[in-house]
Amino acid sequence: MELYGTDEAGRHRYDGALLTSGVLGGGAQAYQFRADLRAVYQYYCANHPYPGERQYPLWEGLPEGSDMTPEALNARVDACTGAGLPAEQRTLVQQQTLNNIVDVVRIPPSTLKAHMRWSTFLFQDMVEQRLDGASPFSNRGVRYRGSSNDDALNAGISRFDEDARAVQKLGEDAGLTGMTDIPTVTMHAIDDPIIFVENEWLYRRAREDSGTADSLVQIYTDEAVHSKLSTPQYAAALEALDRWVEHDRKPTPEAIARYCETREASVYDGGCHFDTDYEVADWRARVYARQP
């Protein structure tokens, strides 16, 4: 939307935008917690890479030329944590390891393997193909919390620094400016396990900083899913956006929720789950702050 929002004459190509479950924090910030995950995981599991394998900085995802597959990575995660097993089939050590990793990184156990795949293969692609092999991430000075022994974790975890040029390049590719004033509605599940709802806090700040917050309405649902929210909620949000664009009637979260209940819920299955009282927390409540 920010990259393609205007034509050559400066006119908007889009009349409005509906963003659902979006990565709205910008690339560097939105992916940073997965760099934390790689470091925390390696501290506890030491199998990605194994000690006898070629060593590489964890922010790299995988070394150039690696032939690792997603299935092979899943097998390593399962061997260490039992994440793919029912809880009763995990060993005590696996359960303790899994608890430590997800409690420190603040993700649901069910998403560990998915986040590990992104922090492996996505990072490899990003670093090799777009960032000239340099690091866009840092965990220098981060104090990790929530494990069974935070002192040992922070003393032993791998540390890495960002490269200023890599950060700049990632920002140019996937940064956040907020520089769009078209009517925008965002919808996000409060317990989205993949793209944290706190991305919405970052997006609100970007729109405020750019002076475009008046054209933003954010709505939240009490669901715990990412890819597909309840169907009537999409219809209600889209109808509200259409009215805003066509008739200059900016909706409120309460109006969208009422529309969902009174009309769309009778047409589509799934029900309406809006929480119009929810206030999204600061990004730093979810992801560890970096040193300035």
SSE pattern: EHHHHHHEHEHH
Helicity range: 40-55%
How would you classify the helix and strand content by structural class? mainly alpha
The portion of residues forming beta strands comes to: 5-15%
| Major sheet summary line | 3 strands, parallel
Shape annotation: globular
The N- to C-terminal Cα distance equals 29 Å
Q: Pick out the low-confidence regions.
A: none
Provide the residue-averaged pLDDT: 93
Radius of gyration: 21 Å
Count of alpha/pi helices: 9
Multimeric status of the protein: single chain
Neighbour order of strands in the largest sheet: 1-2-3
Topology:
Blueprint: E1 17-20, H1 27-45, H2 70-81, H3 92-105, H4 112-130, H5 150-156, H6 164-174, E2 184-189, H7 199-209, E3 216-221, H8 231-247, H9 253-262
Parallel strand pairs: 1-2, 2-3
Helix pairs in contact: 1-3, 1-4, 2-4, 8-9
